[in-house]
Design goal:
Layout lengths: L2 H10 L5 H15 L4 E8 L4 E7 L5 H10 L5 H6 L8 E2 H4 L2 H5 L2 H7 L6 E6 L7 E9 L6 H24 L13 H11 L4 H8 L3 H15 L4 H10 L34
Antiparallel strand pairs: 1-2, 1-5, 3-4, 4-5
Helix pairs in contact: 1-8, 2-8, 3-7, 9-11, 9-12, 10-11, 11-12
């Protein structure tokens, strides 16, 4: 394994929550593929709903997620991964001729407007699971090189192993019980999903920021996470939140922030 890849794997292995892993992976991919748009994507194939985190976020990316879900059956990578058992990273150009891809509605209506003409996908779970969960690296031009594809294939085993371990570990509370939230904790989680900081939540709930921070600590403990982004992701994964609960103003390009006695009420917010 190349030393740079080994260092990346060691860094990602320090992740303790799904949210932190996603955030650190996005940072790693953004640095490794300079000038490209990187994203974490999760599509529920049965419900045809999806959410994504982008680096960097630009206006129109939320509409692009809706467009990809709407035209998912046209996506060359979706067709590829659901037609055979191999789910290793591939480029769109590996599975569909460029001229043919350019004539699709997906390209013209959704991807081209945000400069996502060329794509490499790094799948995190097999599509047969009913979830289409993957990192995507996209750019307008040029297409990705063989070396860049090789880098993605080297990273995938680590990403899959960490994502699987952290997801499985989070299905129940740290004590092995089903996660249940109080009415106030559920309200706080909803406000987090809406992008509010501790100060803003306190104003909405007519209480003190210190009280909100106490609710946050209890919420993190029950969800097995240590940051606000992780709480939103875990809440969604456990069915406590739905995609429609996520504010359109909440762009998934935030960085997970630590919590604790010295954490500022606003610094860890979702903006």
């Amino acid at each position: 394994m190349h030393p740079s890849i080994l260092n990346t794997v060691r860094e990602l292995a320090q992740s303790r929550t799904v949210g932190t892993l996603i955030d650190q992976s996005l940072s790693c991919l953004e640095e490794s593929f300079s000038g490209s748009l990187v994203s974490f994507n999760r599509i529920d194939l049965a419900r045809r709903t999806g959410a994504a985190a982008f680096r960097p976020y630009r206006t129109g990316h939320d509409r692009a997620v809706d467009g990809v879900v709407r035209l998912l059956s046209e996506h060359p990578l979706y067709r590829w991964y659901t037609s055979q058992p191999d789910w290793s990273p591939v480029r769109i150009s590996d599975v569909m001729p460029w001229e043919r891809f350019r004539r699709t509605r997906l390209f013209a209506e959704v991807l081209a407007p945000i400069g996502a003409c060329h794509t490499i996908a790094i799948m995190l779970v097999p599509p047969s699971s009913g979830q289409f969960v993957f990192f995507a690296i996209t750019r307008a031009d040029p297409d990705f090189t063989d070396d860049e594809l090789k880098l993605c294939r080297s990273l995938q085993p680590c990403l899959v192993a960490l994502y699987t371990a952290l997801t499985l570990a989070g299905h129940t509370s740290p004590h092995g019980e089903t996660t249940t939230l109080t009415r106030r904790e559920h309200a706080v989680l909803g406000y987090l999903a809406d992008g509010l900081t501790a100060e803003a939540i306190a104003r909405r709930m007519s209480t003190r920021p210190a009280t909100v921070r106490k609710h946050l600590q209890n919420l993190y403990a029950k969800l097995g996470t240590s940051d606000r982004l992780g709480a939103v992701i875990r809440g969604r994964d456990l069915g406590l939140l739905h995609v429609d609960d996520l504010s359109r103003e909440f762009q998934w390009n935030v960085r997970a922030q630590p919590t604790g006695p010295h954490a500022d009420g606003d610094s860890g917010g979702i903006h």
